[in-house]
Amino acid sequence: MGRKPLDINKIVTDLVLTDDSSLKKKLAKKITDMAYKKGIYPSSIHELYLGFGRGEISEFTVPAINLRSMTYDLSRAIFRVGLKTNSGAFIFKIAKSEMGYTAQSPLEYVAVILAAAIREGYSGPVFIQGDHFQANAKKYKENPEKEIEALQAIISESITAGFYNIDIDSSTLVDLSKPEIKKQQKDNYEVCAKLTQFIRRIEPKGITVSVGGEIGEVGHQNSTPEDLRAFMEGYKERLRKGLTGISKISIQTGTSHGGVVKVDGSIAEVKLDFNTLKMLSGIAQKEYGLGGAVQHGASTLPEEMFHKFPENNTLEVHLATGFQNMMFDSKSFPVYLKNKMYEWLKLNVASERKEGESDEQFFYKARKKALGPFKKEIIGLSQDVRDTITAEIEQKFDFLFKQLNAVNNKSLVDKYISLKRVIGRKRKNAAGGVHDGEGAD
What we know:
Layout: H1 8-17, H2 21-37, E1 40-43, H3 46-53, E2 62-66, H4 71-85, E3 91-95, H5 96-101, H6 106-120, E4 124-134, H7 137-142, H8 144-161, E5 165-169, H9 181-202, E6 210-214, H10 225-238, E7 248-251, H11 274-288, E8 293-295, H12 308-311, E9 314-319, H13 321-329, H14 335-348, H15 359-366, H16 375-379, H17 383-403, H18 410-416, E10 422-428, E11 434-440
Parallel strand pairs: 1-4, 2-3, 2-9, 3-4, 4-5, 5-6, 6-7, 7-8, 8-9
Antiparallel strand pairs: 10-11
Helix pairs in contact: 1-2, 1-6, 2-6, 4-6, 4-17, 6-8, 8-9, 9-10
């Protein structure tokens, strides 16, 4: 008799539910080994983006999707859409802050996504990205080295887990009180360069991690060509000669993360500046060889806006809160569980409630913080309930892929992206010593 086939669904459930870190690591390795055998490789999108920078690729925008909950179910849905639309250029991402409040470590996040690819029969490169690895301006001012070390620690943990795409967000350090634009951007480009050098030191041999920079904090004033040039000139001066730099740049065009919530809980209309996107993306490509500009905070925009992103030369668009909203607001999401989560928020997140906020505004902004504490209960929902919610969100994924023209590009992705299996090796750590790391063949 042959071996009983491994039940990938059970492995994922065990991985997500266990609090035993050694068991989690063991199950994650089992999934990763299975993925490689099936031709599924965590990969960097760097070379594809350089193709955009050289003008060899255009006309589509890469969707980059944050999964805060139901990660296995929704990853499977994304892979199904990828297979159906013959797409290979889409990114799974999670922010540094999200890892905390959703209780999803880099190790777990990568393993769950690879398991979803296995379950759906997807093969080829899988792009997993660290989103908003953000410098805290207050902490940086108090102790710059300590804040950089904290960012290096999460970058190292993420790359070791299989995040070969990292977005550095030091735009929080931009100081608009300074009269000269280059001085405004100084701390931003210096920290971004320093962290890029760190990434190049620890990335697996044979893999060039795709690194993103950011010139304007989302929700603040719109970015300008002067901002972009000041950042890039300072970044190039600061980056050690011979090192590969960033492949994309995030800019501010009028959006905010999650949208602006009105008193009744609805989302305020956004005036997104597509001209800024098109202009800055063109400058990034023509003058600096980058893939182009990245749009943050887009998931709650009106549906009729999305086709404008590829029309305006947008390289990548970030999508997060809208899918979380669809889960919470689905008729299939149990009312008892939502009420329980909201009661928890009242007790545990009350300090974040601003004066004059309505219940709708508070719960809309705060409910993401309940995803980690109630993670096991959400995973424990019946398969029928999760399937129904997933089907609703899958329709949105399908719509977005088509609107962004991110379809029929699988052969293009395969042409630019080389599959590299990461294997154990020794590499230098930040202090220059040596420890067990990752390499690639």
